[in-house]
Amino acid sequence: MKNQIVKTEGLKKYYRLGENTVKALDGVDFTVKEREFVAIIGRSGSGKSTLLHMIGGLDTPTAGEVYVDGRKLSGMNREQLAVFRRRKVGFIFQNYNLVPDLNVYDNVVLPVELDGKRVDRKYVGEILELLQLETKLEALPGMLSGGQQQRVAIARAVAAKPGIILADEPTGNLDTASGHDVMGLLKVAAKQFQQTVILITHDRDIAQMADRIVHIEDGRIVKAGDFHAGK
Amino acid sequence: MLANNNRGIIRRMAKSALKNNRGRNLIVFLAILLSAFMLFSIFTVGITYFKMNRIQNIRLNGGEYDAVMYGITEEQREKCESDSEIKTTGTVAVSGYIESTGNDSTVDASCIWADETYWNEIMAPARDWVKGKYPSAENEVMMTEEGLQAAGLEGLGIGDTFTAGYRDGEGSLITKEFTISGLWDGYGVKSALYVSEAFYEASGYDISEVRCGRYYLDFDRWIMTADEQNAFTESLNLGKQQALYFTGNMGYSLPVFLGLGGLIFVTCLCAYLLIYNIMYLSVAGNVRYYGLLQTVGMTGTQIRALLGRQMTLVGGAGITAGILLGSAVSFVLLPSVIRALGIRTGTAGAVEVTFQPAVILLTVLFVAFTVYVGSRKPVKLAVSVSPVEAAGYRPVYGGNPGGRTKAKAAKRHRRGRRGSVVFRMALDQIRKDKKKSAVIMVSMAAGLSVFLCMSTILESQAARTIVTNHMNTDLVISNDTLKKEDPAEHKDLITEDFLSELTGISGVETVYPMIYGQITVPWEPDFAEMWMKEFYAMWMDIPYENEREEYQQYPENFGSVIVGISREELPYLQEVTDMEIDTDAFLSGETCVIYRNGLDLTSEDVVGKNVTCAEYGHSENQRTFQIAGMTNEGYYIGPVLGFPPTVIVCATAVEEFVSDYSVFQAGVKYTREYDEETENEILSLIQSSPDARDFSWESKLESLREVERAQGSMPQIGAGIALILALIGILNYVNTVTGNIQSRQMELAVLESIGMTDRQRNRMLVTEGMIFAAGSLFITGTVGVAVTYAVYQSMNYMLVPFEVPAGPVVGMTVFIIAVCAAVPLLAGAKMIRKGSVVERIRGMSGA
């Protein structure tokens, strides 16, 4: 039986906007099992990205707890959170967010190098080959297409062998074909390197590729199903 | 086509943009204010500095003139008077030397006649006050209170008379009763007695003689190159004895002018870079907004007008505030500073900071132009970017990563594998836009170089540096009686007892006594003949041939002196002698050094030759020395300067050779330089002597005070300029780096999101700062030092050796390293406080 790798308890995130309080997350209880591929879907402003950022330790909750691999994030300071992110989590953003001055190879191995570890060239080579980037190693992000940049982002996310990949609208800036390509590669990579994926999207087609889809609306999980279990 | 009247909406939008972007506009406003303030202050302080420099020269020269000629012929005078480039000419004639008064038998003061132009125009700016009138009768004199005191006549005033013995042009000693017709004070030769034209005419001196005539020239121009000066000198057909000297101000006017021009240029460059960087960063950071305006239908012209209006409002306010601030500092604070430093306003030599409309105009024009040029590129960017591109625009600090070639990228990749990832990323950041990085480094280096240049010049031209005595001793005590022509009046004042008492004073480190004896140099066909021939050609009006016979037969009529120095003083004599002296030969009394006395003889002419000396009055007692070298050091002249050479040997040689020798002067070195207490003790010792009046001394401490007084607040103002310029360079760095970090906040947030810790980010930012610091210091240490050297040498009319001051350099280095490390750290910390990683990523990406 698979273990729970992510767990949130009564997670709340409120923002003050003028005189109003915006409830981005309003008591979310949510779990993800190891090597599971979960898609979180919801409308714009529903709180799905906020949830992802809480899980990744990028943002702090107003109330509630986040546990990743059994560790409570709220007890960690900035330094510990940074180390947690580079060891446990791989991020994929809609805007790719690659470092523009570093070439493909340097971008991919950046989290490993930041951790002061020796780069496992064989492992990185496998990732790059899988993501069809082996010919682009020395290219700078600005020289690549959107799809290629997102593949670099995926490679970077898996390079440090994190347990969880958090993908925030990874296909949002891509055309349909490229989007499906990237998703396919993400799924293959996650499976090959035994990683858990939490994906955010508002594209139902993309979400269909996940093991499980979670609906979020107005900061609450309204429907969590195992729609495609076994897929 | 009729233009749409859209001024109203543009005005409203500009106003609302200003209101909504208060923070950004405040930075731009402050940048413009600061630049306008700096330029205004530099111009104003620069002008004040220049004025004070001129005043300093007037004070040091004792008058306002550009050149002085020794001896003047009628033909030369006519030429100068008809020269349209010469504004004023004034004549001064040395008309005798006072040797004694009723109260002091060892007075050393010259009688000078000054013509009307010299007294009323050239000398006037150097005088503080005049009481009475310039002498007209033959027995009238004009003096300073200091001069009266030096001649033992303190307490006398206008209308009082005194008797003095003076030597006229024929060499006769005349006793005369003088009446004081006036008193003055100020700068110049204060011991002199200004006499009437009638006195001069009866004196036996003639202004055509080099020993008498001084012709002062004030040119009607600021700048005169060395070539022009040489051409002018040549056009006067100077005689062999005549000389024309340009003052420091005129002689070095072009380099000084160029130096000031360079200073203003560097200031302007720094200010331009500061404004440009801020404007670029502020407008570039808002390009998305202008893209959106295009989306809703705003034309390029309207965007230009909108930005133009914003810049006009912010720029206008910044310039006005900057000038007001500059005015407050320049006109309110500066005079107070000058007054506090003891400069008297309203009298000769006073400096008042005056209203300079040109400075305001120049400041406005420059800053306005800079604002215009600085915002042109960003405006162009805002106008040219398409609405779609604008929506996705992310300000990137310089460069265009997408524009790089694969080869370059590959090269970067290969290079990039060395060192830690943090260091590589820091280095990449610098290399990313080499031009921009170079601009920051150059901008900082420019400020630092000016600081270096100014501190080097200020340090080297500081009173402490330019005031030096012989061998850098603190006090040189002389026995004035030995200058008397009549040996009967000679007294042995610096005796063994006096010297031991002197040495016994606790603050005295070393005493260097110098002895002398009177000698003759009998004629011989080789050296003596050559020397006398050259001496007459250079200094005398009568040909040597007329006097050779007398010299051959009666050498005692051509007396000279032999000077004996201590063993401790030999290293210094070596320094000022043009040939290597064999120490053993010199100390054993075999060799000597000759004082050159301004003759055109070279060492090759004399070294190796023998000079034979005979004891004065005992011609049979002769001794021959081989000449080891020549020196121009006037300290070794001895109490009198004869026609034959002054022979410098070791003290024991003098003691062995002549029976009648005595100490004529002694240099005193204190344990602590400029020690007032020790000096007072020595002066008390002198005053306790019954012959106190017959002593004279040159005090380094007194000279220091005099030079400090003459320099006024110049060093402080110079230091102010240097600090302001260094501040501009640093501000530019601060602005650029904070702007850079601001524009990189998304990139930094991304790095944070993938696990870069605060410590790693700080290390990266500090490394970047250190690279900037190292680059700036490297440029300052190479180009800056070279420029400083060139500027220094062009202004170094005091011929002070070039030396970079260690204190300011170390201070500057530490300060720049601290600033370069602290600024990115603080900017990074400020960025973190702005919001969480997510907010920062969102804030920039708009996701």
Description of the structure:
The complex is a heterodimer of chains A (231) and B (847). In chain A, a hairpin with a 2-residue loop joins strand 4 (63-68) and strand 5 (71-72). Chain A has one domain (35-59, 82-225): 3-Layer(aba) Sandwich (Rossmann fold). The longest helix of chain A is centred in the C-terminal third of the chain and has 17 residues, at 176-192. Chain A has 7 helices and 10 strands. In chain A, strands 6-7-8-3-9-10 form a 6-stranded mixed sheet, sandwiched between helices. Chain A has helices at residues 48-55, 78-88, 104-114, 121-130, 146-159, 176-192, 204-207, and strands at 4-17, 20-33, 37-41, 63-68, 71-72, 89-92, 164-168, 196-201, 212-217, 220-225. With 847 residues, chain B is of the alpha+beta class. Chain B folds into 4 domains: 1-62 and 252-393, no CATH class; 66-246, no CATH class; 406-470 and 697-847, no CATH class; 475-672, no CATH class. In chain B, the strands form 2 sheets. A 6-stranded mixed beta barrel of chain B has the order 2-3-8-5-7-6. Chain B has a 6-stranded mixed beta barrel with strand order 12-13-17-14-16-15. The two termini of chain B are 42 Å apart. The chains are: A alpha/beta (231), B alpha+beta (847). The A-B interface holds A 49-50, 53, 56, 58-60, 78-79, 82-83, 85-87, 90-91, 93-95, 97-103, 105-106, 110-111, 113-115, 137-143, 156, 160, 168-169 and B 396, 400-404, 406, 409-410, 412-413, 416, 420-422, 424-425, 428-429, 432, 746-747, 750-760, 836-838, 841, 845, 847.
